[in-house]
Amino acid sequence: MKSDIQDRHKRISSMVSEKGLDGMLFFNQDKLENPNFIYSTNCNETGLFLLSKKESHLYTFGWSNIFKSPVKNTHLQRLIDLAKLKGVIG
Questions:
Q1: Is residue 89 helix, strand or coil?
Q2: β-pairing, 56-60 with 47-52?
């Protein structure tokens, strides 16, 4: 499964580079699931997924990652914590 996720991230990274972006941010919400988020993380919890040139990172809002996504996961308490993001994020 990890290689599937890595392959997906490579495809997304190619599109990000083609658009001249530094990264891509996907959001998933309880009642409004984002298929791009689920495809990128293999997880359907509420959270944010950041794929940048340097890393891929999943931020969740307090729920345990029951889907055991292979993406590095951090509990996020406030959106302001994402203010450290630099560059052009799509």
A1: strand
A2: antiparallel
Note if the pTM is more than 0.85: no
Residue type, 55: E
- The secondary structure of 23-69, three-state, reads EEEEEEECCECCHHHHHHHCCCCCEEEEEECCCEEEEECCCCCCCCC
SS3 of residue 74 by DSSP: strand
- What confidence tens digit (pLDDT) does each residue in 41-79 have? 888 788 888 888 777 878 877 655 555 666 767 666 656
Residues contacting 60, CB < 8 A, separation 6+: 43, 45, 46, 47, 73, 74, 75, 76
C-alpha to C-alpha distance for 40 and 4, rounded to whole angstroms: 10
Between CA 17 and CA 54 the distance in angstroms is 12
